Amino acid sequence: MDGPIAVTAGDLTFEVWTLGPADGVPVLLLHGFPETAQSWSRVAPLLAAAGFWVIAPNQRGYSAGARPEYVAAYATTHLVADVIGLLDALDLESTHVVGHDWGAAVAWPLAQAYPERVRSLTAVSVPHLAAYGWALRHDADQQKRASYIGLFREEGKAVALLLDDDSKRLRATFGATVPPNLVDEHVRVLSEPGALTAALNWYRAMAADLGELPAVRVPTTYVWGSCDEALGRAGAQRCGEFVDAPYRFLELDGVSHWVPEEAPAALADAIIARVNSVS
Predict the structure, then answer these.
(1) Residue 109: is the preceding peptide bond cis (ω within 30°)?
(2) From the CB of residue 277, how many other CB atoms can be counted at a distance below 10 Å?
(3) Chain mean position to CA 250
(4) How far is CA 9 from the centre of its chain?
(5) Please, which residues bridge with residue 5 across strands?
């Protein structure tokens, strides 16, 4: 991806990578945890080849110029506002949005609150937050899968654990499916002073009512890997109940949580199909 360029939104400055023709249909890619914008490096060229203008920021906490120190600064409302600020700074009235993991957890409320700014949504791994909330309350399998969140919300302990011994445990979260060069890049960024604490603040600032998010009303594709370690089938299957618009559920058999890195062609095809369905 070309870049990064520095884009200022409010009092924060974000590192933003772009690829493809600047006059192409815009597609905004929001990364998850513990990834960076480089998680899209296998998907972005395929989208650019289809004629789209791809925009991939390092989000709040991941960009060195957008790293507030206090937990409350990472509330989802601020994360959503960052996206709107980036669109404004790039003179984009609207864009197609793709989000993976935490990027999806930002994209869902973004699409719900600002449907006029979101032409379509492709959510990857994390289903609509009301579907995920239901699974957390009622599905024992999802409760077990989400047990790591408690650790991530413990200030200090999680950072030390993940960065100890040359970030051994942080690296291990990616399993064997993410290319080593991408793991190295994610770890490099999260090893910067304050970066991992900032990224974990996304978990610590989560509001209890996220699971009460109303339905979205933009054309939506939800992509889920059947071997996702963190997100189970119960929430995935309920996702469509919270989309009042054209909807597609794409299950990638045998694919883990790291869909952008592990199945870039399948994901790019799904994004292109969704974009073309409304463009």
Answers:
(1) no
(2) 12
(3) 17
(4) 19
(5) 16
Structure tokens that stand for 147 in this block? 């047990």
Count CB atoms within 10 A of the CB of residue 42.
18
Pairing relation of β-strands 2-9 and 12-19?
Answer: antiparallel
pTM equals 0.96
Beta partners for residue 52, in sequence order = 25
3-class SS of residue 164: helix
Q: Roughly what angle, to the nearest 10 degrees, separates helices 180-190 and 157-172? A: 170
- Known catalytic residues? 101, 203, 257
Q: Extract the tokens encoding 108.
A: 């869902």
Measured in degrees and rounded to the nearest 5, phi and psi for residue 134 equal -60, -45
The per-residue pLDDT of the chain, averaged, comes to 95
Instruction: Indicate whether 279 pLDDT > 70.
Output: no
The values of phi and psi at residue 223, to 5°, are -115, 130
Work out the average pLDDT over 257-268.
Answer: 97
* Those residues with Cβ within 8 angstroms of residue 150's Cβ, 6 or more apart along the chain or in another chain: none
Q: What's the rounded Cα separation, in Å, for the pair 243 and 251? A: 17
Residue-wise pLDDT for 86-96, tens only, equals: 999 999 999 99
